[in-house]
Design goal:
A: 689 residues, alpha+beta, Aldehyde Oxidoreductase, domain 4, six-stranded mixed β-sheet, 19 helices, 25 strands, globular, disordered N terminus, B: alpha+beta, Ubiquitin-like (UB roll), 6 helices, 37% helix
């Protein structure tokens, strides 16, 4: 960005901080806009041309198969066969739609799409064949899709499924060609909170690498005064060789903060008799003796998606086109327009199929790097992060530290106190500078950290509260946000309360639940698993146990899980069987709701056994995927998923089971070993005989 | 320098010989089914079959496959022909979620079933252990592989 661009950004109403050199972006982050869709918006998603229908998917496709679900809605409402509707992924020429986050695509987009399709169907029937159709909303009860007609409620062949199994190009990095150049931007190996820039490098050695094309100096990094050195090569393999040959020396504005993160979020140092700063439940709970007090600690954890983020950028006549696998093409467009001082209309972002995101592909990173390198080199440039960059430069699930305490009287929980220390999720430190976080801390806390702290059990006095610490590593959204760790802490503690009373954990939960849908999934999973209590037993070598947990996600989706585990003498834990019951209201595609439940069960295994990213001295110290394992096939057991279908409005399925799966597994470990897992991922040696 | 790639003789031009087989396939031949995941041979997204063996193309140098028979997911079904039974089983069981790892999974499954038409459950686990899927599609992968074995029986 040159000086004029900075000034242009300033005249657009943004604060441009005057800094050193040309590489200082606006210090006010572009914030994502999240409008809810309306039926009027939806008319732009569906069109009829030459006897065929074209559905422009208003969501990002990242494996939740929303393309299939919304095509089902469209076919049902248009009263047409499966092959009459073609689906295409959107670009930013579509009127803005919100980011694909929070498992809300069916809940928020199915009805507007159905309304638009219903009006389109009527218009065609009336003989219209061109022009814009005005959507006349009708009661949901009159919509074919919501009556479960046509292909709603069944599971047709997946949209893009045939392309996937044949290896056809679908993802951003699949764009190839003789004119494609490959780029990477190298930054100092420290947090982007510290200003840094390359001061010395061996250009001659870099140029000697076969395939070298160019060095690009002064590549601006994310917020803050970070400057990188860009490299462009003809062959992707050359990038790492060039990076090594450069042997860059870095200049830092200050020493990186080597805050001891474990100490900074140590809940027992922060514990308050009146609760922490941000209250989620706030009954007055008195200090004094507790019948149970348990601490749980969760590691900093990566998303572990298989696709490292990638983007391709191309400039033509002052306009920029970027192809990227992102959860929010419009935010990427806005950020690129801001960065390059352009009118948003001169930037087009094409969303590509995403090879796994899980909350991790929201910010604009590879996109701006590709765009910068493409502008400087005048060629099409592809940037795909290395695994090392994914680990050190992306944001991850924040670590958290919890203490949960309870009192019992006459077989019931009477008092509940859950306090948590963590770092930011919604107001991710990767996108929000410290000074702005000070404001969000005061005004809103962080709803992502709070998610799931409001527990569903009926207790006379319940308090849940949390506080936030900005860490030198970047935390942000991860599947389910805080719901995975918070519900695991809650479900472990409920289990301990049941143990204290010698009560059956299913019966103990039912005793404290009022929500009929939550009770129903719990009863359903107890039936399907043949629940007969913890069933701890020990054969000659292995300790075996069974656990249960349940929960509500975002106050509208319900899950309950039963897990069996087997623990070897050396403490190695195997999950041997999983059962799940799930209720997300009306279901468009039952098989894909089951698939989302299965995926969350696999994530539950990972959350308990594996998910962690090593940090030391204020920075990530892992460079390789092998240092951050995810479950492999032998670790993910047979699972049975039981859908409780209802006529309630559809809610979401993408994250629900993460509220119950980890708790069930942890409670099974407790049943098998007599020891309560309190540190996640668990340390197997702690369970050795 | 030549290879037999999906049953066609191909020449590897000089600038691509020093790099990895993965980028040769993707960026020179345009066969993008095999994917970059970890870059160190631990995730399996880059799996292709070389002389009958499922290998990790991201850590295999292009010049090491000289004269070899290389098969990628694109070569499993003939042009316009029906899908390979493993590909069809993947569709029938709706295996893919995000799909990024699935070409690698399919190639490992194809190599297994050629070697062992009736694998036991343990043999499936052993053969597939090196192909990671973060979406968690393993149960369906198992079912798809066993269904192909069942049909062959």
């Amino acid at each position: 960005m040159n000086r004029r661009d900075v000034l242009r950004a300033a005249s657009g109403g943004l604060v441009a901080v005057i800094g050193l050199g040309a590489a200082v972006w606006s210090q006010v982050p572009v914030l994502p806009k999240r409008p809810a869709p309306t039926a009027g918006d939806a008319i732009g998603w569906i069109r009829f041309k030459d006897g065929a229908y074209e559905l422009t998917l208003p969501r990002v496709e990242m494996g939740q198969h929303i393309a299939t679900a919304l095509k089902q809605v469209a076919c049902s409402e248009l009263h047409v066969a499966w092959d009459k509707v073609q689906v295409q992924l959107h670009d930013t020429n579509l009127p803005r739609v919100k980011a694909t986050v929070g498992s809300e695509s069916v809940a928020q987009f199915a009805e507007p799409l159905a309304q638009a399709c219903a009006s389109l169907r009527v218009a065609i029937k009336e003989g219209r064949d061109h022009g814009l159709v005005t959507v006349t909303p009708r009661p949901t009860s009159e919509l074919s899709a919501f009556k479960g007609e046509g292909v709603v409620g069944v599971s047709p062949e997946l949209v893009q499924g045939r392309d996937i199994v044949q290896g056809r190009p679908l993802y951003a990095a699949d764009m190839v060609g003789a004119d494609m150049r490959h780029g990477r931007v190298l930054f100092a190996p420290v947090t982007t909170d510290v200003g840094s820039r390359p001061v010395k490098w061996n250009a001659a050695a870099a140029k000697a690498v076969p395939g070298f094309v160019a060095l690009v100096e002064e590549v601006p990094g994310p917020r803050g005064h970070t400057v990188g050195l860009g490299i462009i090569a003809r062959h992707p393999d050359a990038l790492s060789q060039i990076a090594e040959a450069l042997a860059i020396e870095w200049d830092l504005d200050s020493a990186p903060d080597i805050l001891d993160m474990e100490a900074a979020i140590d809940i027992d140092k922060a514990l308050s008799p009146t609760g922490l700063k941000n209250a989620v439940m706030n009954d007055p709970v008195e200090e004094g003796a507790w019948d149970g007090s348990f601490r749980y600690d969760f590691a900093f954890a990566p998303h572990g998606q298989i696709e490292p983020r990638a983007a391709v950028a191309e400039w033509q006549n002052g306009t920029l086109t970027v192809w990227t696998g992102t959860q929010d093409a419009f935010y990427i467009r806005d950020e690129l327009a801001d960065r390059f001082g352009m009118a948003p209309g001169n930037v087009r972002v094409q969303s590509m199929r995403v090879g796994g995101a899980f909350g991790g592909k929201v910010l604009c990173r590879a996109e701006v790097e590709a765009a910068f390198l493409a502008r400087e080199s005048g060629t099409r440039v592809k940037v795909q992060w290395t695994r090392s960059q994914e680990l050190s430069r992306a944001y991850h699930r924040p670590p958290s530290s919890h203490r949960v305490r309870f009192r019992l009287s006459e077989g019931r929980l009477t008092d509940w106190d859950h306090q948590q220390m963590s770092s930011h999720i919604i107001f991710t430190s990767a996108g929000i500078p410290a000074w702005m976080q000070a404001g969000t801390n005061l005004a809103a806390g962080d709803p992502g950290v709070a998610r799931g702290m409001k527990m569903p059990y009926q207790v006379a006095r319940a308090r849940a509260s949390y506080d936030l610490v900005r860490l030198p590593v970047h935390s942000g959204p991860w599947r389910g946000l805080g719901a995975g760790p918070n519900n695991l802490a809650i479900e472990c503690t409920i289990d301990e309360a049941a143990w204290t009373l010698g009560a059956d954990p299913v019966e103990f939960r039912l005793r404290h639940l009022q929500d009929p849908r939550l009770k129903a999934v719990l009863q359903r999973v107890a039936e399907s698993s043949g629940w007969q209590g913890h069933a701890p037993n020990q054969d000659s070598t292995e300790r075996k146990g069974r656990g249960v947990a349940c929960g509500i996600y975002k106050e509208h989706s319900y899950a309950a899980v039963v897990a069996d585990v087997s623990v070897a003498p050396d403490g190695t834990i195997r999950v041997t069987r999983l059962w799940c019951a799930h209720d997300c209201g009306m279901v468009i595609n039952p098989d894909q709701v089951r698939a989302q439940c299965e995926g969350n069960l696999a994530w539950s295994v990972g959350l308990v056994l594996h998910d962690g990213l090593p940090v030391s001295n204020g920075g990530v110290v892992a460079d390789h995927f092998s240092e951050t394992p995810i479950p492999a096939m032998p670790e993910v057991p047979k699972m049975s998923v039981n859908l409780v279908e209802r006529s309630h409005a559809p809610s979401g399925a993408g994250e629900t089971v993460i509220v119950a799966g980890p708790g069930a597994i942890a409670n099974a470990i407790r049943a098998a070993t007599g020891m309560r897992p309190t540190r996640f991922p668990v340390v197997p040696s702690e369970f050795a005989l | 320098m030549k290879i037999l790639l999906n049953n066609e003789n191909q020449v590897i031009p000089e600038p691509w010989r020093q790099g990895s087989l993965l980028f040769l396939l993707r960026d020179y031949f345009g066969l993008v089914g095999a994917k970059l995941g970890c870059g160190e041979g631990v995730c399996g997204a880059c799996t292709v079959i070389v002389d009958g063996v499922a290998i990790r193309s991201c850590i295999t140098s292009a010049d090491s496959v000289q004269g070899a028979r290389v098969e990628t997911v694109e070569g499993l079904a003939g042009d316009g022909g029906p899908l390979h039974p493993v590909q069809q089983a993947w569709l029938d069981h709706a295996v893919p979620q995000c799909g990024y790892c699935q070409a690698g999974q399919i190639m490992s499954a194809v190599a297994l079933l050629r070697e062992n038409a009736q694998p036991t459950s343990d043999e499936v686990e052993d053969a597939m252990e090196g192909n990671l899927c973060r979406c968690g599609t393993y149960q369906r992968i198992r079912a798809a592989i066993h269904s192909v074995a069942e049909v062959k029986r």
